[in-house]
Amino acid sequence: MTSPVDFLPTDQTLCYGPDGRLIPCANAGQDASFKNNAPLPTSQRFHPQGQIVRDTLTGAVWSRNANLPEFPLTWSEAQTFVESMRARHVYERDDWQLPSRGLLFSLISHQEINPTLAEGHPFQNVFSGYYWTADTCHRLPNQAWYVHLGGGRVHRGMKHGSYMVWPVSVHDIGTAVDTITGTDRFNIDGLCVHDPVTGLTWSRNADTADGPLDWQQAIDMVAQMNTNLMNGHSDWRLPTIRELERLVSLDAHSPALPSGHPFVNVRDAYWSSTTSVYEPRYAWTVYMEDGIIGVGFKPIAEFYLWPVRGRIPGP
Fold first, then answer.
1. CA–CA separation, 156 and 140 (whole Å)
2. Per residue in 91-109, pLDDT tens?
3. Residue 179's pLDDT band (boundaries 50, 70, 90)?
4. To the nearest 10°, the Cα dihedral for 300, 305, 309, 315?
5. Confidence (pTM)
6. CA separation for the pair 219, 310 (Å, rounded)
7. Mean of the per-residue pLDDT values for the chain?
8. Are 274 and 109 in contact (CB under 8 A)?
9. Domains annotated on the chain, with CATH
10. Tell me: the pLDDT tens digits for 57-98?
11. How far apart are CA 51 and CA 63, in angstroms?
């Protein structure tokens, strides 16, 4: 089962050089270079209805107040808090819960910071810090995933730590926004692997450059691959951070990829084509041990290239 989140591009509209300065997007090989249309306008995506906000893209219903508990809670306390909301039918709904990692990450803007929500969003009391998700870290079950609403990082922390809580109602969406796992997900086509969940095609070799590169080298390497028609294609690109995140399976680790995946030479961490606007000298990266979403300093050759081809136009 797929959902619009599986096809969601970032909202990044600008391009940045390795020094963090703005550059023209034409032929830059970056996130904003690939879009053929603008992201769904905020006013069309989010519909406020009193104290709730419906996300028309995912079907999720969020508390308009992004800080209902008014103070940080441990993961266990957060679970108790949403259980109480269900029992009391807060805002006439009985299915409040902590958001999954994928669902909370779907709210993240990659063009705005503090908070990392789309310009003009209707939410209130958004704290520019970490928010709990419902998901436990597979490798370290005493930790759970949280998302930073100030800059956009996705990390894991001890469940006895205290972080913010943003309840969501998912009656209309079930679990469709989470990555589908299992051996039947991917289709091998020679040296390529097609993912029918996202509509993307990846290189089966997850280290096509045969070693780490800096960010600009990764972009230039993809351009060379297209010139040389790697695997018979000329439309390879550096994946966006959302595309890399959709590969991650929270049910696996080392690497955090769906069970039975067909990829070879999977490395520790990968560049995305998406710049961190919090500090534009850095680009977004995915760490494959657990699936952490962090950043890498663009001039340093310490991340790997995993090219992709296929869909980008927005919802």
1. 9
2. 999 999 999 999 999 999 9
3. very low
4. -50
5. 0.93
6. 17
7. 92
8. no
9. 42-169 (3.10.100), 180-310 (3.10.100)
10. 889 999 999 999 999 999 999 999 999 999 999 999 999 999
11. 6
